[in-house]
Structures are given as structure tokens and as C-alpha cells.
Specification:
The structure holds 2 protein chains of 2 kinds. Chain A is of the alpha+beta class. Chain A has a single domain, classed as Glutaredoxin (3-Layer(aba) Sandwich), CATH 3.40.30. Chain A is about 30% helix and about 20% strand. A 4-stranded mixed sheet of chain A has the order 2-1-3-4, with helices on one face. In chain A, a hairpin with a 4-residue loop joins strand 3 and strand 4. The N and C termini of chain A lie far apart (about 30 Å). In chain A, about 40% of the residues are buried. The N terminus of chain A is likely disordered. Chain B is of the alpha/beta class. In chain B, about 40% of the residues lie in helices and about 25% in strands. In chain B, helix 11 packs parallel to helix 12 and helix 12 packs parallel to helix 13. The longest helix of chain B is centred in the last third of the chain and has 72 residues. Chain B is rod-shaped and about 195 Å long. The N and C termini of chain B lie far apart (about 150 Å). Classes of the chains: A alpha+beta, B alpha/beta. Strand 4 of chain A pairs parallel with strand 6 of chain B. Chain B: Its EC number is 2.7.11.1. Chain B: This is non-specific serine/threonine protein kinase. Chain B: One of its GO terms (molecular function) is protein serine/threonine kinase activity. Chain B: Keywords: Hydrolase, Kinase, Phosphoprotein, Repeat, Transferase. Chain B: It comes from Hymenobacter polaris.
């Protein structure tokens, strides 16, 4: 399910991979290995995105355990962490994203 | 509070320790921090927690070849590197050599929101990555508590911290976790609950406008440690904790005797000097030649080829050399040859700790056989009596352990000063000399006496001494009617004795003459008597002769020839 990356090139799980970089919602979910919490977070995120942002988002999932230097660069502490680079300023939401309303509010706060 | 004390049974495996390389700290902790375990370093702002942590890492790399990881939560790595560069710690250089990994963790609540269940795996991964990057044996987390500012969910945070400390132990890295001092607790966030192996508290106190930093090992599981508060300072080369001392009185001692540098003084000890490695105190009021005695000792030590360190708290080096030359003690050659090092500074320039740290550092650098501190009493001006006493105790301990002969001078002025020496270090001094003014009518003379000399008998006399062109000269004891006589009294006594001797000689001569006279009288009398006797004898003979003549005449008339003896009686 999850895919790793070697560098900054984006691997997307978006509906339209070809247009990943041009999507308004640039999302990246950082997880630590295949854990229940990670799976839950991803499921919650995808559910929300498909429901509200279908076709307008690019999602990348990174296993930080495999690429620890990313954790340093991205200043990650708590995992899972959803980093949203757009729209608006960079922000970070940590946890398993189990509250859909909060997730949606966070995703759409700047875009409204 | 439970202090771990070792059981009495001797052959126990010692807790493995990681030496910090920080001067003094390893002595207090008896070897360093618990190896492979976390140590909590708590302290208020400005105590030098971060610095101590960084020094632990840098010394680890440089002195023990143990790479380290520095994870900072407050200052950025660049800021830290710049801050400690002035202490000669080149963090960037070590990082470039692959001996040190730096990671600055930014905790920014503004960028961070919590949505559901999370853990701090990211921190673990970063730390693990940094450790693997350099093969770290040492880790410093500075200041972990900053995490509490980043997350709302304290329960998660606490369980994660607990996990972190266990994880660090499992990784076997020796870790220092710094934390802010809290009200009523050792740390603001109660981190001491999680770190049970070793807790060190730093403290920053201002007493009488003098700041003193102190360090205390609150807890050290599985090991003994010094339990006192130890002052420490931040020097040009990092943190220095005092004391650098032995906590036991079990050092080896020397039986070798060395000279005091004053021949006459040596004679006052039955063994002609004092033991090597002993501590000598010379106390006295102003102008009693304490410095001269100290310089004589230093010069003698140098002339034996021993390295000597002279701490002058009153005079500059050149001034001391000039002044001592005037009494025939030429220190310049031994200074030039490098045997004597004069370290001059004003006591008020620094706090007490800094002075003692300076002394310790110089001792470590110079490795002298003899040390002079002239005078220790000046140190009182920068510290309380109690502090000075504590410091000197430690200094003397250190000197003794290293078999360094130490000579201290102490200025005594009135009652207070006397107490200082008595309570201060007199009990620590092995030999205590006092020099004093022997003030008489219109003059002062210098007297020297031995108050104590451990391990040997000594003279109990107060000896007068002079500062001559050839150094210190002890004068022979002159005993007068009222005790020992000095100065002009000494001259007077000598004149008196001369007069007495003259009078005695006169008397003798007079008696001689008297005798001669008597003999003459006697002889005259004898002659008189003899003359008298002779005249009586003469008279008697005369009478006899006359009587005989008469008898002859009578016999010639009666019987003719005189054939009969004259004595024949007439039948």
C-alpha cells in the first residue's frame, strides 16, 4: 500500500498521477513502518480526500523508518504526521486523523 | 531520597562508567557517568547545562574516541556551534569528521496540530539515525522538556519519554538529558521520575554579589559519589568542577626531608627540614618577612632542581624578583631556566573558585614539586571564611595526593585573622611557623617560632632573624634575665655581658694583687721573725762564748796544762 521514495520526486497516490504537481492540495503523510496507526491514518486521510477533495490533491506516503534523513529535514517528531504544503502555508497535523471533521477543517482552513 | 551505598563486601563488580573528561566531575562521580545509561542534568537558566553536555560530547570524541550525538531542542546547531567555539569546541569540525552528529529539533506548536492518536516515533528515528550515522556512544538531549511546549497531549508525551529512556538504555548509549529546574521538583516536568540512574543538579547562586555555580550529584544508582555541593566554573577551556580532590585520607606519604631554604630554620627541626609533600603554613602580621621565607623556600627547591610554582597575590612577578634580590635571593636565574614559575594576580580579580581553578589548572600544566601560595589570606577578600576553608582543604588534599610540598603564607591581623588561620587551615597544615614582631622599647624585631611540626620534634624557642644581603639569618639565642633577648636588647645584653666580664677580670686582678701583697707581707713577717730569731740565737751564742772564755781562764789558773776535757765534771 505504502510506497517509499528515494528523493524529492513525488510519488503520488492521487487519482491522476500525471498531474500530481499541479494539484492545489499537496499532501504528504509520514509514517513509521507498517503499523496499525499508520494504516488507520492513511485510510482516514484517503477517505476524507476522496470525499471532499477528489481530483484536487496529490498525496505522498513516506516511511520514515526507511528514510530517516527525511525525518530530520522535515522536522518530524510525532508520527503519523500529515504535512500539507498547499494551499496556504506549510502545516502539520499529527495523529491517526481519526476525527474526520478536524481533518477536513485543517485541510480546507486556508483554502476557504 | 535514597542514596545508593555500596555493600560492605569488598569484591564487587564496579558499575561501568563513562568518563566525562570534565575536570573534577569524574572525581566526584568516581569515574564518570553511568555507562550506557541516561543521566539527568537539571539546573536553572544560565547554569551551563548545555555547555556541560557539549563538553561531555567533545571530550568523549577527543579524549576517549567515542563519537556523540547532540540533539538540541532549543538552540539551533549553528547557534550552539558559535556559542561554544569560544571555548575551543569545534562542533562543525567534529561533525565534518564524522565524529559528531548534530540535529536541531524544532518544536513549533503554531505549525503543529494534534489529530488523534500519535507517538514520537519520529524522534526515535531521528535519534537512531544520528546514532548510526557516527556510531555514537554518547548522546546529549538539550533540552528535552521543550517537547512539552510542542504537544498538548501530555499523557502520550510522558509515556513516550519513558519509552525513550528505555530505548536509550537498550541502545547502550551514555546519555545526558538536560532539564530546567522546577519549583518543588528537580525539573519542571518531573523528568527525574524517568531517569533513575544518575541525577546531577546545577545551581547558580548569588551571595554577597558574588555568583557561585554549584554542582551536586543527587543520585547515582549503584555507585558511591561525592554528596556535597561542589563549586564549578566555566573557564576558557570548559567546565571545571572543584574539587579535584581525594575524598579519602589514604594517600602515600614520603619520608624524605627537604630544606626550608633557611639553614638556621632547618636546624630548628630535629630532622633538619620538613617532609616532602607536607603543607607548611607561615602566618604572621604585616612585614614579618613571610614572603622572604617563602621565596627562600622556593629558591632552595629550584636549586635542588625541582619545579616550583609561586602564586603571588600581592606582588607582580618582576617586583617579587626585585625585592627578593635585595635580600640576596636571586630568583631570576631559576625563572629563566623555567624551574620557577611566578603566577601573579590580584585576588579580587576573580571569584574564589576561579582562583582555585586557576591554581589547579596551573598545577596540572606545570607539574611542580613545590608550590607557594602567597598569601592565602587574601583569598578571604573574595569569599567567606567557610568557603575559603573548604577550598583550601581541597587544594591541600590535592597537593598531598600528588606529593607536592606546599607553602602557604597567611597574613594575620588581629583577632579575626588569627581565627582564620586557626580554623581555616591550621589543622590541615603539617608544619606551622609563625613570624611575629617582637616589639620592644622603640623598635621591632622579627621572631620566628615553630608552632607545630607533625612527625618530628622541633625547637620551642622564638628565634630572632635578620634579613641580610645573604638571605635570612637566624641569630643565636641570647638568654637574658627576663627570657630571650632580641634587637637592641641583644646589643645591650652583649655590652652588659662584656662589662660583667671586665669587672670580673678586674676583680680577679685585684684579688691577685691582694694575694701578692699578702704574700709580701707574709714574707716580710717571716724575715722579721727570722731576724729576731737570729738575733736571739746570736745573743745566746755570744753568752756561751763568754762563759767558755771565763771557764778557760779559771782552769788555767788552777791546774796548769789544759789537758782535761772542759766538760769533765770535777770529781
Amino acid at each position: 500500500m505504502m510506497r517509499n521514495r528515494r528523493d524529492d520526486t513525488t510519488t503520488t497516490l492521487a487519482a491522476t498521477p500525471a498531474a500530481a504537481n499541479s494539484q492545489p492540495w499537496q499532501l504528504c503523510l509520514y509514517v513509521a513502518g507498517p503499523s496499525d496507526r499508520a494504516t488507520r491514518a492513511l485510510a482516514n486521510l484517503r477517505g476524507c480526500c476522496e470525499q471532499h477533495l477528489a481530483g484536487r490533491y496529490a498525496l505522498e506516503v513516506v516511511d520514515v523508518q526507511a528514510f530517516p534523513e527525511v525525518a530530520r529535514r522535515e522536522q518530524l517528531l510525532a508520527l503519523p504526521a500529515l504535512v500539507q504544503r498547499g494551499p496556504g502555508r506549510r502545516k502539520c497535523l499529527v495523529g491517526d486523523l481519526s476525527n474526520p471533521e478536524q481533518l477536513l477543517r485543517s485541510l480546507t482552513a486556508e483554502a476557504a | 531520597m535514597s542514596y545508593s551505598q555500596p555493600p560492605a563486601a569488598p569484591p564487587l563488580p564496579k558499575l561501568p562508567k563513562a568518563p566525562t573528561g570534565i575536570a573534577g566531575l569524574d572525581e566526584i562521580t568516581e569515574g564518570g557517568l553511568p555507562l550506557g545509561r541516561p543521566t539527568l542534568l537539571a539546573g536553572a537558566a544560565g547554569c551551563g547545562k548545555t555547555l556541560l553536555g557539549i563538553e561531555f560530547l567533545v571530550r568523549g570524541v577527543l579524549d576517549y574516541h567515542e563519537p556523540g550525538v547532540l540533539m538540541t531542542f532549543e538552540e539551533s546547531a549553528d547557534e550552539l556551534a558559535a556559542n561554544v567555539a569560544s571555548l575551543g569546541f569545534d562542533l562543525r569540525g567534529l561533525e565534518a569528521n564524522g565524529q559528531l552528529a548534530l540535529d536541531h529539533v524544532q518544536v513549533d506548536r503554531a505549525q503543529l496540530a494534534e489529530a488523534g492518536d500519535f507517538d514520537l516515533e519520529g524522534l526515535f528515528i531521528r535519534l537512531g539515525y544520528a546514532i548510526d550515522q557516527v556510531g555514537a556512544k554518547r548522546v546529549v538531549l538539550d533540552t528535552l522538556e521543550a517537547l512539552f511546549g510542542g504537544f498538548h497531549n501530555e499523557a502520550v508525551l510522558r509515556s513516550e519519554l519513558q519509552r525513550l529512556f528505555r530505548w536509550l538504555k537498550d541502545r547502550g548509549v551514555t546519555t545526558i538529558i538536560t532539564a530546567e529546574r522546577g519549583e518543588g521538583h528537580l525539573t519542571r516536568q518531573g523528568l527525574e521520575e524517568y531517569v533513575s540512574d544518575c541525577v546531577i543538579v546545577l545551581d547558580n547562586r548569588v551571595v554577597d554579589q558574588v555568583t557561585t555555580r554549584r554542582l551536586r550529584v543527587v543520585k547515582y544508582r549503584g555507585s558511591t559519589h561525592g554528596t556535597n555541593e561542589y563549586p564549578y566554573i566555566i573557564t576558557e577551556t570548559g567546565i571545571s568542577v572543584l574539587p579535584i580532590t581525594s575524598l579519602q585520607l589514604d594517600y602515600p606519604v614520603s619520608s624524605e626531608i627537604i630544606s626550608s631554604g633557611v639553614a638556621g630554620l632547618d636546624e630548628m627541626f630535629t630532622r633538619r627540614g620538613w617532609y616532602r609533600g607536607s603543607s607548611v603554613l607561615i602566618s604572621g602580621t604585616a612585614g614579618t618577612a613571610k614572603t622572604t621565607l617563602a621565596a627562600a623556600f622556593a629558591l632552595a627547591a629550584c636549586q635542588r632542581g625541582e619545579r616550583t610554582l609561586y602564586f603571588a597575590f600581592e606582588e607582580s612577578g618582576p617586583q617579587l624578583i626585585r625585592n627578593m634580590r635585595s635580600v640576596g635571593l636571586d630568583l631570576q636565574p631559576v625563572v629563566d631556566s623555567g624551574l620557577l614559575h611566578i603566577e601573579a594576580s590580584r585576588p579580587t580579580l576573580n571569584g574564589l573558585e576561579r582562583h582555585l581553578v586557576t591554581i589547579h589548572n596551573r598545577l596540572a600544566e606545570f607539574k611542580p614539586s613545590a608550590v607557594v601560595v602567597d598569601p592565602i589570606s587574601n583569598l578571604v577578600s573574595v569569599g567567606s571564611l567557610l568557603e575559603v576553608r573548604g577550598m583550601l582543604t581541597r587544594l591541600i588534599d590535592y597537593l598531598k595526593v600528588n606529593n607536592i610540598t606546599a607553602l602557604f603564607t597567611a597574613l594575620v591581623s588581629g583577632r579575626l585573622g588569627q581565627e582564620m588561620t586557626e580554623e581555616g587551615i591550621a589543622s590541615l597544615a603539617d608544619v606551622w611557623l609563625t613570624v611575629r614582631d617582637l616589639e620592644g622599647v622603640g623598635e621591632r624585631n622579627r621572631g620566628l617560632s615553630i608552632l607545630k611540626a607533625r612527625g618530628m620534634a622541633h625547637s620551642n624557642q622564638v628565634r630572632e632573624f635578620l634579613l641580610t644581603d645573604d638571605g635570612v639569618q637566624l641569630l643565636e639565642v641570647v638568654l637574658g634575665a627576663g627570657g630571650i633577648i632580641t634587637g637592641t636588647g641583644r646589643q645591650a645584653q652583649r655590652l652588659l655581658e662584656e662589662r660583667q666580664a671586665q669587672a670580673h677580670a678586674h676583680e680577679l686582678a685585684r684579688k691577685e694583687r691582694e694575694l701578692t701583697r699578702k704574700r709580701l707581707v707574709l714574707e716580710a713577717s717571716i724575715a722579721n721573725l727570722r731576724t729576731e730569731f737570729e738575733s736571739v740565737e746570736e745573743e745566746l751564742r755570744q753568752s756561751n762564748r763568754e762563759a767558755e772564755a771565763q771557764q778557760h781562764a779559771r782552769q788555767g789558773l788552777a791546774s796548769g796544762p789544759a789537758s782535761l776535757p772542759s766538760t769533765q765534771p770535777l770529781g
